[in-house]
Structures are given as C-alpha cells and as structure tokens.
Amino acid sequence: MAKKTTKKVNNNELDGPEFFAAIAQIEQEKGIKPGYMMEKITQALVSAYRRDHEGVGDNLVVDANPETNTVRMFLKKDVVEEVDNPATEISLAEAQAALPRAQLGDVVRIEIKPKSFGRIAAQTARQVIIQGIREAEQGMVYDEFSSKEHELLTGEVTRIDPRTGAATLRIRSGSEFTDAYLGPNEQVKGEHYVEGQRLKVYMVEVRKATKGPQVLISRTHPGLVKRLFELEVPEIFDGTVEIKSVAREAGSRTKLAVWSADPNVDPIGACVGPRGQRVNTIVEELKGEKMDIIKYSEDPAEYIAAALSPADVISVDPLPDGKSCRVVVPDDQLSLAIGKEGQNARLAAKLTGFKIDIKPASAPLEPIEEPEEDLFAEEAPAEEAEAPAQEVAETENTEAPEEA
Q: Which of 161, 248, 279, 326 has the CB geometry, 3.0–4.6 Å to 166, for a possible disulfide?
C-alpha cells in the first residue's frame, strides 16, 4: 500500500505562535523591555520588503496581533482606472478580482506572502533585528552604569597593552557588565597589574559612544580614597563623621579633613580604627600610600595649622585677600612643614583652598598691608564715599595724643 503523504498547506501568515514565542524568549534572556523587539522586527520586515520593491512607501503596514499570535503584512493601494505606480495603485479590474465590491477611489489592502522576500531582503531584516538587540543591550548597560557614577566598583583585569601599559577591566554592576579602560594617566605610579587581578576603581563618568557606552575609571582620583573610607568606616557611611575635603597625590600621600557634629565622636579616631586597622586596610589597598587624617575646623587659622601636620605651627595670619595666609613655624620645623619637594605645603593648600606662605620664626616678617579703601571711590555715591574718610580722620585724631 502506497504511503499517504500530507501536502503542507501554504499560509499567508508568518508562523505566529513561534514568532511571538521567539520574541518573548529574546526579551527574557536579554532583559529587554516587552514590545521593544516587536517594534524592531516590524521595522525589519518593512525595510526588507522595501529593499526589493521600489516605490513602496508608507502604504506598507505590518499587523502584529499578540492575542491571536498572527503577523501579517499588507500593501494599501488606491483603486484607479489607469495604473501609474504599481507600488501604490491597482486597476479596478484587478481589485474586483480580489474584492468584488471594490470601486474607483477605494483603498484596498493586498496581503503579502512571506515568500515575497528575497535573499538580500531577508539578510537586511536579520541585520536590523541584530542591531536592535545590540542597541537595547547598550542602552541597558548605559542606564545601569550611569547610575554608578562617582561610586566604587571592583573590576577584573582582562588585558594589558604591552606598549602603553593601559589596562582593560571587566566591571560588573547588577546583571550587567562592560569593559572599562584604565589609561596610564589614571594609574597610580608604581602599581603593576597582571591579567586576572581584581582592582577597586572609581567610576568617573559614563559616556555614550557609537560602539556602546564608554566607562571612564580611575585609580588616582581623590574620590577613590573617599569611597574607600566610606566602605571601611561605618561612622562615615551612616553620616556621623563627614569627609569635608580630600587632597591627594596618588601613590605618595593623601590628606583627609574629617568632622563630626556629635561631640562624643572623635572623627580622627573613627577613621583610624582600633590599632589602626581601618586606615591600614585602605593603605594596603592603595599600595602603601601615606594618609594624613586631620580634624576640620570652621576657623581658617586652626584648619590651616592642622593641615600642615605633622609640622608644628606657631601662628597663622590670614591675608586681606581672603584666599592667602602667612604661616610661621619653628626653624627646625620648616623643612617638615614644606615637605619633600614641597608636597606637604602643596597638599595643605589643596585641602584648605588657601595659598600658604610658610616662614621660619627667625625670619623678619614684613607687615601685612591692608587693602586700599579707595579703589572704587569713583564708582561709589558721594555720600558713601565721604563717610569712610571722616571715620579715618577721627581715628587719626584719637590716636595722635596717645603716640605723643
């Protein structure tokens, strides 16, 4: 007996159930929001058909119905007596052959069979879909890592450029990961990295680029020290102790100004930890970088004197410009206050925001000149300009008898 064969029935519809199941699977595996892939695939189908059929424009529509699991494509054509553009027009006779009640001026929908796609058009659709997936993945990576700017992340060294010494790190955040570039300028001098090594890095910025998000990381940024202290010191993490300022020369020395609103909390002791355990952990992470932890003060003189530690300070005289000061130290403390190659004074200036002029106690001090009061006398109103002059005159008169 002859074997019975069943002829497969051609259907104008794409394989709807499998089509929607594939979209759902892609969105689930890639973490893409629902509906995004359907939009991209619709664009791919339209682009593919237009590639092989010149003249087709907005009259091509894709009808995707998730409820019925059907995906169908239609060409909208105007019914006319004489066809000038076959891509957008259809003759009355041809229209009535498909739809007997069609009349001139009507718009009919002609369904397109999937076999109407050529090989090149199918490749175009495939590229559009792949590009859509790539854009969605890049968008998720950007959203995830842009929320981590100015945070501390751990990365694994995956490659080191033997020519420049630049390192590529694979960093992760949540379920997302990306490769970040650690350039020579962002590496601590003296540090040497090997593939597979894990490093803590500071996330400086995330930029959008044509090849995907560009993550900028650093090992030299002062923010790295701040985040390490937040990680190691619970009092900083919960806000009991506040880091007011950080001045850093990566790989060599860092000065940290801390403060606490709670009088019962010693901010320096909290950062140092029992037997120096907390600060030693940070120093170890930074490969031996020295840490000077000082107490912040609202009084500029007291703050500047503390910033110059470990040197002793005799006096601090702020200068009239409000951004500079003169500091007097014992003669034997001068080199300590300035530091090797001026490092201690330079870091203290960065930390406090003051330009610091350090003088030994034995050096004759020049008098601090007061700013001239009549610099803007021409711009001031007449009444306001006369008042200070009168006060000065009165002051001179009262001081004269005392000097005599």
A: 161
